[in-house]
Write a structure and sequence with these properties.
By secondary structure, the chain is α+β, with helices and mostly antiparallel strands. Helices cover 19% and strands 23% of the residues. Strands 11-14-23-8-9-13-12 form a seven-stranded mixed beta sheet, with no helix packed on it. A seven-stranded antiparallel beta sheet has the order 15-21-18-19-20-17-16, with no helix packed on it. Strands 3-4-5 form a three-stranded parallel beta sheet, with helices on one face. β6 and β7 form a beta hairpin. α2 runs parallel beside α7, α4 runs parallel beside α5 and α5 crosses α6. The longest helix has 27 residues. The radius of gyration is 24 Å and the shape is globular. This is Sialate O-acetylesterase domain-containing protein. InterPro entries: SGNH_hydro_sf.
């Protein structure tokens, strides 16, 4: 269940387009089972003929493509060596609030949802999927059970709103409300699935961490309160759908930055599959990579942050992701939100980071992680700006030239795919940025960053002489563990980045957090 990342929106082109050999299943109607025009509010009326079992491969539905399905199911099957097949279905929709997807509210059908108002029924559909699967399995004399519920939602709620008509809540109130809603959703699944199966069942519930520190924090709080809810980890290390090119109604498009590429979806699926295996098969008391406590040294010039590390030791990775400042994505600030510069950061004992500061810390102090996307400022100002024709996809290009050859500074970003160029200006009306899709050295031995005119922010132009910076689309940090688990699939889309045919790295990256108070030792 979830919103657009669950649906694989703009995760195109599909990469799992043929039978993988692991024997896993979807319904004949596809992995996506909720639709506007097929009994969304009364899914019992759907014909059982549409629920024959079929081989699990990705199927495109308008601009929805690859999902976590094959990554999750095929990883689990390969690694757990189970004697059975997994069936995957998804009944959510892009852009939905939690309360538009749950049982208790079903707010999608509320007239106050205005242009996003529909007949609702997402939760009903997901439960009816379970019933249809049970009926179909019974007809084939197969044993059927529900292994897990996956949750991929939260982006819509990052505004601190619970629905489309009430005002945003203060942070603390929102976290409490979202957490309780999510736990209640899990309990409703337990009750309704138990009724269908004819036995009491406590279904393990797995969520990713929504980007940012709002819904993602509430999700973590839910997993702390309910022992059968688990956070798999973040998604910030994954390429976004701005890298994609797909065709719709005869025209080519790039995806939006909030969505994932097809490879990212399948990779995320493997991350889900890995954690589900560790919980269900290995009986591991799973927690993501996360901070446990932060404390001062005696002279208050150093801070130590101890982490839960699923597979030690902790790593500050600047090879897979570009370095995020002197403290690798950790920020220190006082009660007034004034940033306290960190001189250096290093790992000690495999699970602790030591942060050093210039002066003794006198005030109440906090830490955050994964809250910025900035990579670095460029050393040279813009030297020249020129049109560079039309690229192979038919998009008109603009190129921005900087004196000197410093292409190596972009190597980590280019491995991933696209990134952002922004200008440093005093007047906000002159601020602009551009998605950079190519970097090269021209005949004058200068560095050229190329993008597409359609990606220029609000059509505000760059100007010669402006200082610039580069950033990723997602806020991030460099903290991960040393998980050596091998993926089942590889990067398959070679139209962006430089990771084609490489294994998906199944490291566990640190979840984002904020307002972690630093205490006395």
């Amino acid at each position: 269940m979830g919103q657009s990342l669950g649906a694989g929106e703009q995760s195109l082109p599909i990469i799992t387009d043929s039978i993988t050999g692991y024997g896993n299943l979807k319904f004949r109607m596809g992995t996506h089972t909720w639709t506007y025009n097929y009994f969304p509010d009364n899914p019992n009326l759907r014909s059982l003929d549409n629920f024959d079992f079929a081989p699990l491969i990705a199927n495109r539905r308008v601009v929805e493509g690859e999902t976590i399905a094959n990554g999750l199911c095929d990883y689990f099957t390969e690694k757990s060596k189970i004697n059975g097949k997994l069936l995957f279905s998804y009944a959510g929709q892009g852009g939905r609030y939690l309360r538009e997807l749950d049982k208790r509210h079903d707010d999608a059908k509320d007239l106050r949802a205005e242009r996003r108002q529909s007949k609702g029924g997402h939760y009903k559909t997901s439960i009816n999927d379970v019933l249809k699967a049970k009926q179909k399995a019974d007809s084939l004399n197969l044993t059927y059970n529900v292994m897990a519920v996956t949750w991929m939602q939260g982006e819509a709620n990052n505004t601190r709103k619970l629905n489309r008509w009430d005002e945003a809540l203060p942070r603390k109130e929102f976290l409490h409300a979202y957490k309780n809603d999510l736990i209640q959703l899990k309990k409703d699944y337990d009750t309704d699935i138990s009724n269908i199966l004819g036995k009491e069942i406590n279904v393990p519930f797995f969520t990713y961490q929504t980007g940012g520190t709002m819904s993602g924090t509430a999700q973590l709080l839910a997993t702390e309160e309910n022992p059968n809810m688990y956070m798999v980890g973040p998604t910030y290390m994954m390429p976004n759908a701005e890298n994609t090119v797909y065709e719709y109604r005869g025209k080519k498009y790039h995806g939006d930055g909030i969505h994932l590429t097809a490879d990212s979806e399948r990779w995320l699926g493997e991350q889900f599959g890995k954690v589900i295996k560790r919980v269900l098969i290995d009986k591991e008391d799973w927690q993501p990579l996360r901070p446990l406590k932060a404390y001062f040294s005696e002279d208050k010039k150093e801070v130590y942050v101890k982490f839960h590390v699923p597979r030690p030791p902790l790593v500050l990775d600047t090879i897979f992701l570009p370095k995020q400042g002197q403290s690798y994505g950790i920020r220190m600030y006082d009660v007034n939100k004034k940033v306290i510069p960190v001189k250096s950061a290093k790992i000690i004992d495999g699970n602790t980071i030591q942060l050093s500061v210039q002066n003794k810390i006198e005030k109440e102090t906090y830490l955050s992680y994964g809250t910025r996307s900035l990579v670095k400022d460029l050393s040279e100002p813009i030297h020249k700006i020129f049109d560079s024709g039309t690229n192979e996809h038919g998009f008109k290009e603009i190129s921005i030239e900087f004196k000197g050859n410093f292409i190596d500074e972009f190597s980590t970003l280019l491995d991933e795919g696209v990134f952002y160029l922004g200008n440093r200006v005093k007047n906000s009306s002159e601020f602009t940025n551009l998605i950079i899709r190519n970097v090269y050295i021209n005949d004058a031995e200068n560095t050229v960053l190329a993008g597409e005119f359609d990606d220029l922010r609000k059509d505000v132009p760059f100007k010669v002489g402006q200082k610039c910076y580069i950033s990723r689309r997602y806020v991030y940090g460099n903290l991960r563990d040393s998980d050596s688990e091998k993926s089942v699939f590889n990067f398959s889309d070679t139209n962006y980045g430089k990771r084609g045919n490489m294994n998906y790295p199944l490291f566990n990256w640190c979840i984002s957090f904020q307002d972690l108070i630093i205490k006395e030792k």
